Amino acid sequence: MEKRVFFRPSPLPYLLVLPQLVITAVFFLWPASQALYQSLLIEDPFGMRTEFVWLENFAYLFSDRLYLQTFWTTAYFSAAVTALSLGVALLLAVLADRIVKGATGYKTLLIWPYAVAPAIAGVLWLFLFNPSIGLVAYYLKIMGYNWNHVLNGNQAMFLVVIAAAWKQVSYNFLFFLAGLQAIPRSLIEAAAIDGAGPVRRFWTVVFPLLSPTTFFLIVVNIVYAFFETFGIIHTITKGGPGKSTEILVYKVYADGFVGQDLGGSAAQSVILMAIVISLTVIQFRFIERKVHY
Amino acid sequence: MVENRGLLTLLSHAILLLGIAVLAFPIYVTFVASTSEMRDIIQPPLPLVPGPYLIDNYTEALTRGVAQASGAPVALMLWNSLVMAMAIAIGKIVISLLSAFAIVYFRFPLRALCFWTIFITLMLPVEVRIVPTFEVVAQLGMLNSYAGLTIPLIASATATFLFRQFFMTIPDELLEAARIDGAGALRFFWDIVLPLSRTNIAALFVILFIYGWNQYLWPLLITTDASMNTIVMGINQMIAPGEDQTNWPVVMATAILAMVPPVFVVVAMQRLFVKGLVETEK
Fold this sequence. Notes:
The complex is a heterodimer.
Chain A: H1 12-38, E1 41-43, E2 50-52, H2 56-63, H3 65-98, H4 103-111, H5 118-129, H6 135-142, H7 153-181, H8 185-193, H9 198-209, H10 211-227, H11 230-236, H12 248-258, H13 262-286
Antiparallel strand pairs in A: 1-2
Helix pairs in contact in A: 1-13, 3-7, 3-10, 5-7, 5-11, 7-10, 8-9, 10-13, 12-13
Chain B: H1 6-34, H2 38-42, H3 54-64, H4 74-105, H5 111-120, H6 130-139, H7 146-154, H8 157-169, H9 172-180, H10 185-196, H11 198-213, H12 217-222, H13 231-238, H14 248-268, H15 270-280
Helix pairs in contact in B: 1-14, 3-14, 4-7, 4-8, 4-11, 11-15, 13-14
C-alpha cells in the first residue's frame, strides 16, 4: 500500500522522524547490541577484568539445570494462565453474546480489571491468600486445607496463575465478544433449523468460526504471561519458594540486578529477544494481520 | 437470539453475575480492608462490611505514606505516576504522529531503513533488555528523574503503525486540493491530518495512559530515591518483608488509590478504550 501523491523532496521528513529514531537508537538498538556483546563476555566477581568467551555463557545456560527448570516453569505458567483466562473469557463472552438485554452493562462490569496494574493485582491476591491474615487462606484452613504459598511451591504457582489470569480475562472477553458478534446470524439460524441445539451449534459452527480470534488470543496471552507478569511474580512470590515460580523474565532481573552476573543475564536477555521475535513473527504470519509496507 | 429458552437465559445471567462477582471480589475485600483498622485485619476473618476508618486511612496514606518503608507520601507517588503516564502517552503520540506522517507523505532516501528501525522496537520490550538499558540511562545521568522514567519508554512501533495505517486511508484528493491551495507539508499536517486523526489520538491516549500508569519494572530500577517512586511500584515497598510490620489498612488504601485513575479512564471512555485496544493489535 503506497500513497500516489507526495510532497516535494525536502529535508523536512528527516526532521520529523529524527526524534523517534534517536530514542530508538539510544534506548533500543544500543542496549540490545550491548546485550549481544555482553552475552559473549565473562566478568570476574569484582568487575575488574572481563574475558571474551564466545558462546560459553549460552553453553553454560543450556547445561544449567536451574535455567532449564526456569524454562519449564515459564512454559507451565504461561500455559496455565492462557488456558484459564481464555476458558473463563470464552464462557462469559458466549453467555453475554446470548443475552439481548443488559449486554452493555455486563461488558462495562467485565472490562475494568484490564486497567489494574499487574503489580497491584499481585497485591490484591497476596492479601486474599496471605497465610496468616488472608480471608481465603482462613476459610481454606477451616475446611482443613493448610494454605501456605510462602512454603509450598505448588500453591505459590497456583496463586500467581490465578492473579495473572484474573487480570487478563477482560481483555480476552472483549476480543471473544467482538469475534462472536461478527459471526453471521444466518449461519446459526440455519443450524438451529436443522435441529442443532445450543451446545452442538457452539462446537460445530461458532467455535470453528471463532478460531482466528482464539489463535490470535493464544499468542497474545503467551506474550503476556512471558513478559508482562513480572509485577505479579515480584509482588507475590519473588520467584520463590525455592525458585518454583521463577519465570524467565524474573530470572534475567534476579541474575542481572540482584546476582550481578552481567554476562549470564545478558545471554538470557538475548534468548528472550529470540523468543519475542519468533512470537512476533508467528503473530504476523498466521493471523493475517500483516504489516504492509 | 435464535430461539427462546427462558431457562438458559436465566442461567446465562446467573453465570455472568457470578463471573462479575468473582472478578470484583478481590477489589471489594481490598476496599473493606482500606476502611478497617489493623486489629480487624490481623484477626481473620475480616468482616465483609466496610469499617469506619475510611477517612483516617486514606488521609494517612496520602499525607504520610508508610513511614518505616519508604516514607514517600502517596500523594507524591500519585503525582509521579500522573507525570509518567501523561509524558509517556503524549510523548508516544507526538513522535509517532510525526514519524508516521514523514513515512507516509514523503519519498526520501533511507525511508525503508527508518521504517524497519522503528519496527524493531516492537520486538524489544523493556523486560528483555533491562540490564543494558539501565546502564545507558545511568551513564546519561537520568536515574531518579522524570526524563529517565519516561523517555526510554516513549519510542513505540505500535503507535507509529496505527497512525501510518490511518494516514493511508486519508483520500489523496485532500492532499491534492491542499497543494493546489498552496499549503505546505506542515500546514497540511496541522490543518487536515491532525483534525482527522482526533478519534485515533484519543483512543490511543486511553491505552497509552494505562500502559504508562501501570509500569512497574522500569520505575523499580530507575528510582532509588523515594521521592521519585510511582504508586504502582511504591506500594510493593510498603509491604514489609516479614509482613508482620505491614500497615495493611494504609497499604490497601494505597492499592485502591493506585487503581482508581486507570479504571476510571477505562470505564469513562469505554468506547475509545475498546477502539484503541482493537486497533493497537492490528
